Structure formats: C-alpha cells, structure tokens
Amino acid sequence: xxxxxxxxxxxxxxxxxxxxxxxxxxxxxxxxxxxxxxxxxxxxxxxxxxxxxxxxxxxxxxxxxxxxxxxxxxxxxxxxxxxxxxxxxxxxxxxxxxxxxxxxxxxxxxxxxxxxxxxxxxxxxxxxxxxxxxxxxxxxxxxxxxxxxxxxxxxxxxxxxxxxxx
Length: 166
Prior knowledge:
The protein has 6 helices and 7 strands; from the N terminus they run αββαβαβαβαβαβ. The chain has helices spanning 2-34, 67-74, 87-92, 108-113, 129-140, 152-158, and strands at 39-42, 63-65, 80-83, 99-100, 120-124, 145-149, 163-165. The radius of gyration is 16 Å and the shape is globular. 30% of the residues are buried.
C-alpha cells in the first residue's frame, strides 16, 4: 500500500502539469474563438487552425508535414500545438493556441515526460530542425503521437498561415 501511495505522489507533478496544460488549452481555445487577446501578425487565406479541411486520420508519429497538411492535422480533436522555440521567439509570433516548451531548455525532457502520452502533439519551430529534435525526444519518453511542421513557422508564414502575438 505504501508503494502505491509513493507511486501516486511521484506522479502528482505530472498530473498537475497535465491539468495545467488542459486548462491552458481550454483558455487558449476560448480566446481564439472570441477573437480577443491576440493581434494578428499576418492573416491571409493561407493555412489556419480554423479554415480548410480537417485531416481524416492522424499523421504517422514522427512525420514531417507541409503547411497545408499540418493545418488540416491541427483540426483533429484533442490536438495540442507545441512551439519549441525560445520564449522570445514565441513572443514575436506563434500559431494560434500554441503552447511554448523550449526544446533548448535544460528541463525540456522533464516537461515532456509530464505530458499526456496519448494526446496528439503538433510541433513546430522556426525552420523544422528543433521540432524534429523535439519530436524524437518526445518519442523517447513515451509520447505516442507527434508530428512536426517541415520548414517551421517560416514555411507556415510563406504559405500565408496565421500567426499571432501575445
């Protein structure tokens, strides 16, 4: 019985992180729907988290997707968008609803180990290199469904994708 209690106690930080992530996603989703909070940096007819088709199937774990395919995959229910750039880069502009977990931070592995491993994660960075590293690291700690944006936010913006600040 004591083993069970210590096991639950050791999982408490992971459960707290998962709960905080869920609250942040809900708040971000509501803010995105209300139109409040974030000023568009660019908003054109390109890929967005709301316009266009929804992917009919989850991308293969570890897959590198182009901007249009990434946009369609983002719309699948329960998908979490992770920006793995630095907080400064994130503040300069990011995909709507994205959460920031800096892959270069020493605590990145511990942070992703605390994520729900059954949730699909759409990962991006500036050019696609750091997101590929992040996806590999996430897979190594048991996160089962990850894919990333080839060419990163640069490719997203080149395709006319929406980016917000704030």
